[in-house]
Amino acid sequence: LVVQYTLERKSPENMRTSRPLEDIHDVYAEKERSVFFTSFWNKLELMLFAASGSKSILHGAASVAPMCPPLLTDFLSRNFDAKQMDNRLLPLHVAISESSTYSERHDYFIEQLLNSYPQAVNIPFPNGRLPLIQAVERGIASWNVLKRLCSAASIKQRDPVTGLYAWQVASRNENVGIAFELLRLYPQAMWS
Q1: What is the CA radius of gyration of the chain?
Q2: Cα(124)–Cα(119) distance, rounded to whole angstroms?
Q3: pTM of the predicted model, to two decimals?
């Protein structure tokens, strides 16, 4: 690279348009950076594929949602194609079932998934549970995200596993604030 640049620099036709010699370090540094970022993304892609088994990269990112960088979350969720899902778990299902603790990054990840595929709130897990019930039971989402998981069907449907409404699942897990907010959305659940 240095020899080639030096030869180009000394040729008469390049004398007026060539960069100063000290810029050669910038050229080399830029090449190193591009190689680093290429290998970084290749490693990241490999890690996400490994985390997701044979599913998509978005599934892999969902399985490590609290640690997924927001920029990667944005990119992956914008390129998500629900038509390719067949009967597999959606990335939303993976994000809800794989996480064990609440974090703002996890909330952000779920919100991006809902932005890219809002119909996911009505697609049940294999056990019949809707994402709202699963998220309430696991206690992994803030009220802002749980509101987005609420749909007309999910707020009125009993959990097929426990037979309880979402607000009852929240109160059973001693999450009184969430139980109150869910009950405010569907007060008829109190008497049915």
Answers
A1: 25
A2: 11
A3: 0.67
Residue 49 CB partners (closer than 8 Å, separation 6+): 57, 60
Handedness of CA 46, 51, 52, 58 (dihedral sign): negative
- What single DSSP character describes residue 181? H
Whether pLDDT at 153 is above 50: yes
Give the model confidence (pLDDT) of 111-139 as tens digits: 988 988 888 899 998 889 999 999 999 88
Which of 38, 36, 19, 15 lies closest to 27, judged by CA?
19
What is the DSSP secondary-structure string of 41-81?
Answer: HHHHHHHHHHHHTTS-HHHHHHHTGGGS-HHHHHHHHHT--
Q: 82-93: per-residue pLDDT in tens?
A: 666 655 688 888
Q: Which residue do the tokens 């987005």 mark?
A: 148
DSSP structure class, residue 101: S
- pLDDT, tens digit, 9 for 90 and up, residues 26-56: 555 555 555 545 566 666 665 666 555 656 7
- How many other C-beta atoms are found inside a 10 Å radius of the C-beta of residue 44? 16
Given a contact cutoff of 8 angstroms between Cβ atoms, the answer to whether 63 and 93 are in contact is no
